[in-house]
Write a structure and sequence with these properties.
By secondary structure, this protein is of the alpha+beta class. Helices cover about 40% and strands about 15% of the residues.
C-alpha cells in the first residue's frame, strides 16, 4: 500500500473500521462463540500441565532475561521438497510436518511425552479484516503427545488433528486462558510453554519506486522472548530456519548442536517417515565417527542407542 501511495495511486476506502470490529466483539453472538472456544481450551489443558524439562548450560535466573541470540541454518531443497510431498500424501500441511518434527526433537532431548509449543496466529479470519489497521495477532498453545513407540506417520496424524482443532478455536485470548487455568506464575519462565514454532509464508515481493533502490536489511537480534523459538520460512534453496535462544540459559555451541540434530531428524523423517520416533536418527556423521573411533570401546548396541536419541 505504501508503494502504491508513493506512486500516486488511490486506495479503495475500507468498508469497516477497527471500531466496527470492536463492536462486533461485544455482540451476543460473538460472546457465545467465545464461550465455546473457552470450553475447548480448558478441556485441552485439563489435568497436570507439563513443563518442558530441557537441560540448560547455565542455572535458570530467578527473573527471566530477554538477552538472546539467533542461529540460522537451512534444510536443503531436496529434503524440503520431500517434506512437502509428505504433507500432501498425509493430507496435512508443511507447518504440521515441521511442528511434528520439532516436538519429536524436544521429546528426544527431554524424554517427555506431553509437550506444549506456542505458535502465533494472524487473527484475521474474514476477508474484510485483511487490510484493516490493528493488532489481531493471538498465540495458540498446541499440546501434543510424542512417544517413542509411535511411528512418525502416526504421530503426524495426531499433530494434524490437534493443530486443526486449535485453528478452529483461534480467537480465545492466550492471556485469558492462562488466567482461567490459574497457572502458578513463575518469574523465571513464560506461562504454559517455553518454546515457540512458526512457519512463515510471507510473500516475497520486489518493490520498485522511481528514483529509489529497495533491499532487505538483516536485523542483528540480541533478544529472546522464550527459552527457544524456531522460525522457518520457505526459500528457493530450501527451508531457512532461525533458532532464537536465551543466552542466559544456553551456550551458542549447544544451540548449534541442537540445530544440527533438528536437521538430521528432518532428513530422517523425509526419507523414512514410517519409522518409530525412537528410531529416527538425529546424530550427525561427525558425532557417529567420534562414537565409533573416538572412544574405542563403544559397542554396536551403544551406537544404536545414540542413533535412537537415547543418549541426548
Amino acid at each position: 500500500e505504501f508503494v502504491r501511495l508513493y506512486g500516486g495511486e488511490e486506495l479503495a476506502p475500507l468498508r469497516i473500521q477497527y471500531k466496527d470490529y470492536a463492536v462486533w466483539q461485544q455482540s451476543e453472538a460473538h460472546q457465545e462463540w467465545m464461550q465455546r472456544q473457552e470450553a475447548y481450551w480448558l478441556n485441552t489443558f485439563r489435568g497436570e500441565l507439563p513443563v518442558l524439562d530441557l537441560s540448560t548450560d547455565f542455572a535458570r535466573p530467578a527473573v527471566q532475561s530477554t538477552a538472546g541470540d539467533t542461529i540460522e541454518f537451512i534444510l536443503e531443497r531436496e529434503v524440503s521438497e520431500r517434506l512437502k510431498e509428505l504433507a500432501a500424501q498425509t493430507g496435512s500441511t508443511l507447518y504440521m510436518v515441521m511442528l511434528a518434527a520439532y516436538t519429536t526433537l524436544l521429546h528426544k532431548y527431554t524424554g517427555q511425552e506431553d509437550i506444549v509449543v506456542g505458535t502465533p496466529i494472524a487473527g484475521r479470519p474474514h476477508a474484510e479484516l485483511s487490510n484493516l489497521v490493528g493488532v489481531f495477532i493471538n498465540t495458540l498453545a498446541i499440546r501434543n503427545y510424542p512417544s517413542s513407540d509411535k511411528s512418525f506417520l502416526e504421530y503426524l496424524q495426531e499433530v494434524k488433528e490437534h493443530a486443526l482443532r486449535a485453528y478452529e478455536h483461534p480467537d480465545y485470548p492466550f492471556e485469558e486462558l492462562v488466567e482461567k487455568l490459574n497457572v502458578a506464575r513463575d518469574t523465571s519462565r513464560n506461562a504454559l510453554f517455553d518454546t515457540m514454532f512458526e512457519l512463515k509464508t510471507l510473500e516475497q515481493r520486489e518493490f520498485e519506486l522511481e528514483g529509489l533502490t529497495l533491499s532487505s536489511y538483516p536485523l542483528d537480534n540480541q533478544t529472546a522472548k522464550f527459552d527457544l523459538s524456531l522460525e522457518a520460512i520457505e526459500q528457493p534453496e530450501g527451508i531457512l530456519c532461525s533458532l532464537e535462544y536465551s543466552t542466559v540459559l544456553y551456550k551458542r555451541e549447544t544451540m548449534t548442536r541442537l540445530a544440527q540434530h533438528f536437521a538430521e531428524i528432518v532428513r530422517a523423517i523425509a526419507y523414512h517417515p514410517q519409522q518409530p520416533l525412537a528410531v529416527l536418527n538425529m546424530v550427525t556423521d561427525e558425532e557417529q565417527e567420534q562414537l565409533i573411533y573416538g572412544f574405542g570401546e563403544v559397542g554396536v548396541t551403544d551406537v544404536a542407542a545414540v542413533e535412537a536419541g537415547a543418549l541426548f
